[in-house]
Amino acid sequence: MYCDNTGAIAIANDHGVTKGARHFRAKDHYLRETIDLGDYKPKTLRLTFEEGVQMLKEAGVDVDLLGDLNTESERTLGKLVLEKYGTEFYILYRYPLAVRPFYTMPCNDNEAYSNSFDVFMRGEEIISGSQRIHVPELLEARARECGIDLKSKYIDSFRYGVPPHGGFGAGLERIVMLFCGLKNIRQTSLFPRDPRRLEP
């Protein structure tokens, strides 16, 4: 998709889970009566990574401002967001550059952070995305910083001209599990597998 980080966040928000949540809350009486759909605001809450870390620190959680959040910290932040803002669905953006892939665009105003985001539902990440680097020299520099040896043909393709672009990935089975309040992702998978089972 051709957009910057703000555009990628808007697409994930406007055409993603919140639209579905509002639709089901308004239309499907059976679903509303049998599944706790949670509280989804008309406009999705957006917090910077720094704001999220500050909330965690105020709650006594030890978090590195330039590190990543572990699973327990994400769940704790989800509870704090619900208590403070009354929603279980929010976007955390401007993650530290050090914890994102080499192709993630650094922020213009602070290169310690990146133009990236995660979308959370009920304390778990469901979508992750970013603006991607489109400038070949910057892409080469970031790859070197991360110890990655890029093939010349990959970089050459950027020299022909790549527009600003971004993207995101969504875990659909996880979204359905969290949206419906289910306890296990196997309940949302058509053919669940695990180390001890090949058939559902």
From TrEMBL:
<keyword id="KW-0030">Aminoacyl-tRNA synthetase</keyword>
<keyword id="KW-0436">Ligase</keyword>
<feature type="domain" description="Aminoacyl-transfer RNA synthetases class-II family profile">
    <location>
        <begin position="54"/>
        <end position="200"/>
    </location>
</feature>
<dbReference type="InterPro" id="IPR002312">
    <property type="entry name" value="Asp/Asn-tRNA-synth_IIb"/>
</dbReference>
<keyword id="KW-0067">ATP-binding</keyword>
<keyword id="KW-0547">Nucleotide-binding</keyword>
<dbReference type="Pfam" id="PF00152">
    <property type="entry name" value="tRNA-synt_2"/>
</dbReference>
<dbReference type="InterPro" id="IPR004523">
    <property type="entry name" value="Asp-tRNA_synthase_2"/>
</dbReference>
<dbReference type="InterPro" id="IPR004364">
    <property type="entry name" value="Aa-tRNA-synt_II"/>
</dbReference>
<comment type="similarity">
    <text>Belongs to the class-II aminoacyl-tRNA synthetase family. Type 2 subfamily.</text>
</comment>
<keyword id="KW-0963">Cytoplasm</keyword>
<dbReference type="InterPro" id="IPR006195">
    <property type="entry name" value="aa-tRNA-synth_II"/>
</dbReference>
<dbReference type="InterPro" id="IPR045864">
    <property type="entry name" value="aa-tRNA-synth_II/BPL/LPL"/>
</dbReference>
<protein>
    <recommendedName>
        <fullName>aspartate--tRNA ligase</fullName>
        <ecNumber>6.1.1.12</ecNumber>
    </recommendedName>
</protein>
<keyword id="KW-0648">Protein biosynthesis</keyword>
